[in-house]
């Protein structure tokens, strides 16, 4: 690579994600920074786009970002500030940062209420704008949250999934109690469990994959398969997005219980509405995260528990192998081995 190009992993079409050379991310304009990417996590949404997309990747120019495929994937990003545009304060060259990947339109009603994660024309790094599976990415400076210097850059790359978990836990604020069950022992489910345990909540995890359950038990959690007897719980977090995940969550809720739903099923889910009615279960969705109430607390948690958080990382691959060693693995029979696979882009620690 020279000073004008960089390597990137880009979505061109369903089943067509390529490692290729592209122009280097542009110099930052007013209010922008350029980030030298250290690590980028692979997410279930990346796998869905790879296997079955396009879902969020636009094939026509996106109304907010104006970009369309091919798009550089990756939204769970850590890296160092490489260049700073005019009218940016609070950041210095070389700062380790994580990025809030949301690109709201700033014109719709939710944006006007400050609920930018619910934007009706929401853009997203790694989906509708070039993301972090590349050497550099240029973004609004407001996206960046600095990370304390003692936090390894690979742990910092967990900030986005932990922010999603923080938002889930906030969605349950009115019903928080001493006991909770989490459906799905992937990265979001384990992050949610770690946050709840840090608050003193008794947590149990449920998953179909024996290796994920073993991982949860290694982290000190009670865990079992859906067919096991788990009893009923006042608070249920559905993090799997798997077929049957919502029905399982409904079955685990005790009368008057609260279900927080963050998993995104690949197809519409069937659920026993009678069970919801007769037990007066309350269901609330949880969509992504916000910067101040979610991403910054997530960084704080990682700074306080870097070793514990690092145990969620179950695979690391170089950028050149992001497809064969990352997406293909997460789409294949060995996906149950993994909570979080990180792609090493430019990490130096």
Automatic annotation (TrEMBL):
Output the Gene3D superfamilies linked to this UniProt entry.
Medium-chain alcohol dehydrogenases, catalytic domain, NAD(P)-binding Rossmann-like Domain
Checking Pfam families in the record gives: ADH_N, ADH_zinc_N
Identify which cofactors the protein needs according to its UniProt entry.
Answer: Zn(2+)
Q: Does the keyword Cell wall biogenesis/degradation apply?
A: no
Which protein, by its recorded name, is this?
(R,R)-butanediol dehydrogenase/meso-butanediol dehydrogenase/diacetyl reductase
Q: Which species does the entry assign this protein to?
A: Amycolatopsis endophytica
Domain Alcohol dehydrogenase-like C-terminal span(s) in chain numbering? 187-303
The entry's family comment says: Belongs to the zinc-containing alcohol dehydrogenase family.
Query: Which is an annotated GO molecular function term of this record?
Result: diacetyl reductase ((R)-acetoin forming) (NAD+) activity
Query: Is the Metal-binding keyword given for this protein?
Result: yes
Q: E.C. number, please? A: 1.1.1.-, 1.1.1.303, 1.1.1.4
Where's the Alcohol dehydrogenase-like N-terminal domain? Answer: 29-148
Top-rank EC class of the record's enzyme:
oxidoreductase
Matching InterPro entries: ADH-like_C, ADH-like_N, ADH_Zn_CS, GroES-like_sf, NAD(P)-bd_dom_sf
UniProt entry keywords in alphabetical sequence: Metal-binding, Oxidoreductase, Zinc
The organism's place on the tree of life at top rank? Bacteria
PANTHER family linked: GALACTITOL 1-PHOSPHATE 5-DEHYDROGENASE (PTHR43161:SF26), SORBITOL DEHYDROGENASE (PTHR43161)
